[in-house]
Amino acid sequence: MDKLKVGIVGAHRGSSYFQPFNAIAVTDIVAVCDINETTLKNTAERFNVPHQFTDYTEMLDAVDLVVLATPENLHVPQSIEALDAGKHVISEVTAAVKLEECHDLVRAVQKSTAKYTMAENTCYFKHNVLIRNMVEKGLFGEVYFGEGEYLHNVKSLHHDTTGNPTWRYYWQVGINRCNYATHSLGPVLQWFGERVVSVCCLGTGVRTDPEHAMEDTVMMLCKTQSGGLIKIRIDMLSNRPANSYFSLQGTKGSYESSRGFGAQPKIWLHDFEAGEVWKPLSEYEPEFLPERWKNPPVEAQNVGDLGEYFKVRDFIDSILNDTTPPIDVYRTMDFTVPGLVSEQSIANGGAPVEVPDFRKVE
Ligand SMILES: NC(=O)c1ccc[n+]([C@@H]2O[C@H](COP(=O)([O-])OP(=O)(O)OC[C@H]3O[C@@H](n4cnc5c(N)ncnc54)[C@H](O)[C@@H]3O)[C@@H](O)[C@H]2O)c1
Asked: Measured in angstroms, how far is the CA atom of residue 347 from the centroid of ligand 1?
């Protein structure tokens, strides 16, 4: 079989894809594309990529699959262009910046011969994979509460070295809503195994960076199909060290990830503990971490971050076997759309807003 020819678009975050793709025997990164010629040349030379493009449309002819590691507002137009040309798409997070463009993306996937995924890497964090496996084995009982937090002061990325605003200025913190929530919501929704039907969103007020519309901490409460609750906290503006956090509560189990500073992720499972006492999550790894994480395939042995490798490998396998990608366009919408519609809620004092189900788009 001919190898799948891969093009990386956006050379900064895009660079993280070289290791996984180089490990996979059936893929070849043949092109890199960036409008910044210096970044383009440096990346192509560093990773020994044969073809360089500053024009995305021109690059599409040379590849079978694109990785879109471009600014968030380009993800939908670039995905649609690739899908219309029959090229597979791995889109970085988040998939879209406007609700209206989500319909266009879903329709483009529906009519394309190619496959689409959003590369939500937190779904491939080892601890999140372990918890998911335990949930699927019924160890948490009925799951009804979860939390995801992403606290990362990225104010330094809002302007470039010449002082001009970057895409993050407009699309990550320029709109008051629960932006960039897929890292936090994605894994928790996988644990719940359902979608969000409505959100309520409130913020703390604009405190540290009056230049931006987004309130410093924004909190989104998500009601799931079965009536469960997921709390998402996003803060990309407050002066503080970074942290991300997850938790899960079910009728038979409870999980709290580490908040850093030496703390361990901890878990309590009714089926394993007579009393209500925490255990280190690591104690359950030998029994419940999926087999492929314990004994990775030979090609993954020097891949560095295993999660990044499985994220790419799963999508390639869905192409090779013509199966649905683990994070297909509908799951992508489940992760992305709550954050988009939270804009209406926060503008209306936290009033609940319905989250559309894109499986109904025709
Ligand atoms: N999954 C993660 O953990 C993670 C981490 C960082 C960034 N990201 C995502 O990756 C994407 C890129 O983020 P970044 O931090 O690398 O941003 P960045 O601004 O540092 O890099 C974006 C690159 O895209 C290039 N570019 C812009 N327009 C282009 C176009 N039309 N065609 C080709 N290249 C173009 C820019 O020149 C730049 O090199 C974003 O969507 C971001 O949300 C994800």
From this structure: 29
